């Protein structure tokens, strides 16, 4: 089976600083794959490199077997969409929800705008009453649902999720994470998810890669992580840091 997303020897350098040092991994079709590690480990840099937002020094990125060039075209953004960490910063404050959802449709020349917008809002649990509100009129969880709807409206096959719930309260986190799970199952999407929170990765992903200082430390199945079957001291320290965390309380409202 061809990997839906394949990263090989990826290096990213910012002004002489090596943010990624030859990272490699594959994500299978329909899989949810997690990237974990502390701040500065390079997790988000991987997502930005895939999306064409980071300077790639060397290495390759392939989507469904097709190697990406230096620039991302419209076809790429139809297939791959990103949900950012901060729902307060990722939505234009002077645009209504309707305008935010119309914009990607206009860029890609897609018709049936009314139907697509209504379907996207329904899918993320927001009715038509939210359509003409501005982002400052929405709660944090509602804003992130709009951001997810904006990503879904182009009917992508891959979602890049950059700490999509870290700015939200715990009970709202649970709702958004469960929504993302339902959408993946219904649409058969592939997720690449960044989080520093091992409980969230355990809840959402089948496999994960642990990162430190721009390098891959360890690759695990989530069942291995849950059973603490890890081999590297860095991963053990991450597990210790998350000890005492009640996953059921956090992730089930």
Structure overview:
- The chain has 253 residues and is an alpha/beta fold.
- The protein has one domain: P-loop containing nucleotide triphosphate hydrolases (Rossmann fold, 3-Layer(aba) Sandwich), CATH 3.40.50.300.
- Helices cover 37% and strands 25% of the residues.
- It has a 6-stranded mixed β-sheet, sandwiched between helices. Strands 2-1-4-5 form a 4-stranded antiparallel β-sheet, with helices on one face.
- The protein is globular.
Please outline what is shown here:
This protein has 253 residues and is an alpha/beta fold. It is built from ten helices and ten strands.
List keywords for this structure.
253 residues; alpha/beta; Rossmann fold; 6-stranded mixed sheet; 25% strand; globular
Q: Mind sketching the topology for me?
A:
Blueprint lengths: L4 E10 L2 E11 L4 E5 L6 H8 L5 E8 L2 E2 L6 H6 E4 L13 H11 L5 H11 L16 H13 L5 E5 L7 H18 L2 E6 L2 H7 L2 E6 L2 E7 H5 L6 H9 L5 H5 L2
Parallel strand pairs: 3-8, 3-9, 6-7, 7-8
Antiparallel strand pairs: 1-2, 1-4, 4-5, 9-10
Helix pairs in contact: 4-5, 5-6
Q: Spans with pLDDT under 50 lasting ≥5 residues?
A: 245-253
What structural class do you assign from the helix and strand content? Answer: alpha/beta
Q: CATH homologous superfamily - what is it?
A: P-loop containing nucleotide triphosphate hydrolases
How many DSSP-defined strands? 10
Overall pLDDT score: 92
Task: For the record, give the distance between the C-alpha atoms at the N and C termini, rounded to a whole number.
Answer: 37 Å
CATH architecture heading: 3-Layer(aba) Sandwich
CATH class descriptor name: Alpha Beta
Order of helices and strands: EEEHEEHEHHHEHEHEEHHH
> How many discrete domains?
1
Please list the strands of the largest sheet in the order they lie side by side.
Answer: 6-7-8-3-9-10
CATH names the topology as: Rossmann fold
- Major sheet: size, sense and barrel closure? 6 strands, mixed
Number of helices: 10
Percent helix among the residues?
Answer: 25-40%
Beta strand %: 25-35%
The shape is globular
Alpha-carbon Rg, integer: 18 Å
